[in-house]
Specification:
Layout (H helix, E strand, L loop, with lengths): L1 H15 L5 E3 L3 H10 L5 E3 L1 H27 L1 H17 L2 H13 L9 H14 L15 H26 L2 H18 L2 H24 L19 H16 L8 H17 L4 E5 L2 E5 L6 H18 L4 H16 L4 H8 L5 H5 L4 H12 L7 H8 L5 H10 L8
Helix pairs in contact: 1-2, 3-9, 3-11, 4-6, 4-8, 5-17, 6-7, 6-8, 6-18, 7-8, 7-18, 9-10, 10-11, 12-13
Length: about 400
């Protein structure tokens, strides 16, 4: 990697001269290339990339283990399969469908509902899956949606364990079947004892990592800008003092000596401290010397790169930039051929224009594809999706079912 970066940096140096300072991530290739091309130039580590790398080292192994266990147990697939079945039942019942669409405005109904368990299971499954959209748009390790999903599964399972015995005593097994199925779908994940320890460790380490985020005043948990957040303007001395206080607290933890992940994090802070909290640059200007503090993150410049990727994804559907560029190279000539009269003549055949050609598409085929898209259980109306996202937990739905038991919602 260094061999590819060095020529590029030399070209920049030849075109623009030596820089006043450098801000970059912790890539070993970049570090070696900078030492070779720009020796002696003030060198800074991007705070965001530094924090992200520490978070991956601290949480990455456990998060990968969680991802594999979710795949092994097939929890997400099972929930989606259940939602598809329940969606068909809801679509076939006008009253139940109306009740569902009225939830965002009126909340859970208080009148007797013969299919209350179905509605409850449907909402609970969606609430668990909504954990996969939790986060502020920073990506892992700042956002940990799989942990949120697993924790939600634990909460729902606990509520079902408390609810189902009473429903069994009241009878009505057929109506209660969705709740039983939901419990069975969640049981393998929730009863996985090694995974419980993994989740507890992720929870604990995640809290430590979030404390470091607060100390560095970057990637705040409550900021809506995600990767576009510019970091708080704080003096380097203040940041360094807060980070050193954080490091002292971690060293004082009883498990520190026996936890390689925590020791490695503190070692990284000590190692890169000079590049994280360097003093401002003194530069000469026509008005005299002036102190300039370089940006503490190169995330600002990366916005342009992300905009390019986003534009490519929107046009091609490719996820990575490499695939986007390859797709653009392959597809662009085909689009340009529409400007070639001979090619367009072959494409149109006897049709006068493209509009006439597209008009021959069978409307029934279009309606069929739209109907399939609507059957996707992940595609909820916006208001209902917001209602589920705003649920504080599964307890209100459990209470809803319990309150309606007196109305014999579970009786055949």
């Amino acid at each position: 990697m260094t061999d590819g970066i060095v020529p590029f940096l030399r070209q920049l140096q030849q075109a623009f001269g030596p820089p006043l300072a450098l801000v970059h991530d912790m890539s070993k290739g970049i570090l070696r290339a900078i030492e070779e091309v720009f020796p002696g130039i003030p060198d800074y580590i991007c705070h965001f990339h530094f924090l992200r790398d520490l978070g991956k080292d601290l949480l990455g192994a456990d998060y990968d283990r969680l991802r594999k266990r979710l795949q092994t147990h097939g929890t997400v697939g099972a929930l989606r399969a259940g939602l598809r079945d329940w969606q068909r039942l809801i679509d076939a019942d006008p009253h139940l469908r109306q009740t569902l669409h009225q939830l965002p405005a009126g909340g859970l109904p208080t009148q007797p509902q013969p299919h209350a368990p179905l509605l409850a299971a449907y909402l609970l499954a969606h609430w668990v899956l909504a954990g996969r959209q939790q986060g502020q748009g920073y990506g892992f390790p700042f956002d940990r949606p799989l942990l949120a999903t697993a924790r939600r599964a634990q909460q729902v399972f606990a509520q079902l364990e408390a609810l189902l015995p009473a429903l069994r005593r009241s009878g009505g097994g057929r109506q209660n079947r969705p709740l039983h199925h939901l419990r069975l779908d969640l049981q393998p994940l929730v009863t996985d004892r090694p995974l419980r320890r993994t989740l507890d460790r992720l929870q604990s380490y995640g809290q430590i990592f979030d404390q470091l985020r607060q100390a560095l005043r970057i990637a705040p948990i409550t900021a809506p800008q995600g990767l576009n957040h510019e970091a708080e303007p704080v003096e380097m001395e203040t940041l360094e003092r807060h980070v050193q206080a954080f490091a002292a607290e971690v060293r004082a933890r009883p498990e520190y000596a026996a936890t390689p992940a925590l020791r490695n994090m503190i070692q990284q802070i000590d190692r890169y401290g000079p590049k994280l909290f360097a003093a401002p640059l003194l530069v000469s200007t026509p008005r005299g010397s002036r102190a300039i503090q370089p940006q503490r993150t190169n995330n600002l410049l990366e916005r342009f790169f992300r905009d390019l990727k986003r534009d490519g994804r929107r046009k091609t559907g490719a996820h990575s930039l490499g695939r986007t560029l390859c797709s653009m190279l392959a597809d662009t000539p085909l689009v340009k051929n529409l400007q070639n009269p001979e090619h367009l003549k072959i494409l149109l055949g006897t049709h006068p224009n493209l509009e006439a050609l597209f008009a021959e598409i069978d409307p029934a085929t279009v309606r069929e594809q739209l109907q399939k898209a609507r059957q996707n259980p992940d595609k909820l109306p916006r208001a209902l999706k917001r209602y589920i996202a705003d649920l504080p937990g599964p307890a209100p739905i459990k209470t809803y079912v319990e309150n309606l038991q007196s109305n014999r919602i579970s009786s055949p």
